[in-house]
């Protein structure tokens, strides 16, 4: 009887030792699945304190696996004739075709102005930046625009405070690197004056850590041909490229905005003749590599360029011959696209996914008429991964036309959202 009592006492003492050792308990909690962390914060005030502490955040950043793009979200184009505009978001998984979509529509935001007109603006390492639809973003409604940051992995939503409602907030980007911090930043360009050839404004940055907007130290004259809504976050900066064949563009270099330092800089554009018509281009990052993908109508080659980590120059990483792909998918040539009097393959680059961190082959994700295909950059194998007609319907796809979908990468990520 005494022995049994001693054993029970020893067992209870072991549990108490673990629960009372904050360092050990924190290490255990850090290894919970993403979707479980929010639930375990509700266990007790002590666990909530531990799981919201800076130490917990730092440990999470160190223990996080490499970022893996699991799939893409596709949202149909805005149609002015349709009321309300569609808010369906379709998910195309890259690995298991049976993987369910983290969410179906952007009605998750419950926007009091118009929940059916919320659009995805940007994605960055697992987080999505969303906003009231651009159709409702006319002058009369500008003060009612709401911006959100949504994490599909945790199904949590942040409402970003309205920022300078009397000003013209044109562009927003998202900066998030879970390997450095669980917090994110939203970047907005606020126009103060404009002309036919340029617009002048300031960059403003919202930090989820402090919950406020701050003005950058540098005002900026945005030239014709530079679109600040197409930025790519890489190495702590938002990178922007101007249109290559934009008539009247005065931009000869790429521009970047350093988010933490609030300053602008330049980097070389890909070594492509700005006067040459360019179709099927793509600008994005994957596994800490910044890429530009471009195709010239005068050839059948698709060039994949990569920018060196010191931003000194671009180099060719892959060359892709589109002729064999068009033989496997003849709709690429049956539905040729007319471009400046010439003809080229009907295709669009949706994403370039690197997989070296997982010892797997990298691949391109291409849209061709009616389908999305995956092209292996190592062995040149092809795989159809989505049929537009299945989810959208043939009539809807035909009415929207080719190459008009908004595409965002999906990465499972843990953050303050």
Produce the secondary structure layout.
Blueprint: H1 2-20, H2 22-29, H3 34-40, H4 45-51, H5 54-63, E1 69-75, E2 89-93, E3 118-124, E4 127-132, E5 147-151, E6 156-160, E7 168-176, E8 184-194, E9 198-207, E10 212-223, E11 232-234, E12 237-240, E13 254-258, E14 263-267, E15 279-286, E16 289-295, E17 301-307, E18 314-321, H6 322-328, H7 331-334, E19 337-339, E20 342-344, E21 348-353, E22 363-368, E23 371-376, E24 382-387, H8 388-391, H9 394-400, E25 406-411
Antiparallel strand pairs: 1-2, 1-25, 3-4, 4-5, 5-6, 7-8, 8-9, 9-10, 11-12, 12-13, 13-14, 15-16, 16-17, 17-18, 19-20, 21-22, 22-23, 23-24
Give an overview in words.
The chain is α+β, with helices and mostly antiparallel strands. It folds into 2 domains: 2-61, no CATH class; 64-411, Neuraminidase (6 Propeller), CATH 2.120.10. The chain contains 9 helices and 25 strands. It has helices spanning 2-20, 22-29, 34-40, 45-51, 54-63, 322-328, 331-334, 388-391, 394-400, and strands at 69-75, 89-93, 118-124, 127-132, 147-151, 156-160, 168-176, 184-194, 198-207, 212-223, 232-234, 237-240, 254-258, 263-267, 279-286, 289-295, 301-307, 314-321, 337-339, 342-344, 348-353, 363-368, 371-376, 382-387, 406-411. It has a 4-stranded antiparallel beta sheet, with no helix packed on it. Strands 7-8-9-10 form a 4-stranded antiparallel beta sheet, with no helix packed on it. The radius of gyration is 24 Å and the shape is globular.
């Amino acid at each position: 009887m005494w022995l049994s009592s001693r054993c029970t006492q020893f067992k209870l003492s072991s549990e108490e030792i673990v629960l009372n050792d904050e360092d050990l308990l924190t290490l255990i909690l850090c290894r919970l699945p993403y979707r479980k962390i929010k639930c375990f914060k509700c266990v007790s005030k002590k666990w909530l304190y531990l799981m919201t502490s800076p130490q917990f955040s730092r440990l999470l950043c160190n223990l996080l696996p490499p970022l893996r793009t699991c799939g893409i979200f596709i949202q149909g184009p805005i149609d002015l004739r349709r009321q309300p505009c569609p808010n369906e978001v379709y998910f195309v998984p890259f690995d298991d075709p049976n993987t369910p979509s983290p969410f179906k529509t952007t009605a998750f935001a419950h926007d009091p102005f118009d929940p059916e007109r919320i659009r995805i603006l940007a994605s960055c390492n697992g987080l999505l930046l969303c906003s009231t639809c651009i159709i409702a973003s006319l002058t009369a409604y500008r003060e009612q625009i709401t911006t959100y940051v949504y994490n599909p992995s945790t199904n949590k939503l942040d409402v970003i405070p309205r920022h300078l409602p009397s000003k013209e907030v044109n562009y927003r980007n998202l900066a998030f690197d879970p390997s450095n911090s669980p917090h994110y930043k939203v970047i907005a360009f606020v126009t103060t004056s404009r002309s036919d050839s340029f617009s002048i404004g300031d960059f403003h940055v919202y930090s989820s850590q402090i919950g406020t907007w701050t003005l950058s130290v540098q005002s900026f004259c945005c030239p014709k041909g530079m679109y600040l809504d197409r930025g790519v976050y890489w190495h702590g900066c938002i990178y922007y490229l101007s249109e290559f064949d934009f008539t009247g563009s005065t931009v000869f270099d790429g521009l970047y905005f350093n988010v933490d330092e609030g300053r602008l800089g330049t980097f070389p554009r890909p070594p492509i003749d700005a006067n040459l018509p360019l179709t099927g281009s793509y600008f994005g990052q994957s596994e800490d590599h910044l890429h530009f993908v471009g195709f010239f109508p005068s050839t059948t080659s698709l060039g994949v360029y990569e920018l060196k980590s010191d931003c000194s120059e671009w180099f060719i990483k892959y060359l892709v011959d589109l002729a064999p792909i068009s033989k496997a998918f003849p709709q690429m040539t049956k539905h040729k696209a007319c471009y400046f009097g010439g003809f080229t393959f009907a295709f669009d680059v949706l994403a370039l996914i690197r997989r070296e961190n997982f010892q797997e082959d990298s691949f391109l994700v291409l849209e061709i008429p009616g389908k999305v295909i995956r092209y292996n950059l190592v062995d040149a194998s092809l795989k159809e991964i989505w049929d537009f007609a299945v989810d959208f319907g043939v009539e809807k796809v035909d009415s929207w036309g080719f190459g008009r979908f908004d595409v965002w990468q999906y990465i499972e990520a843990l953050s303050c959202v």
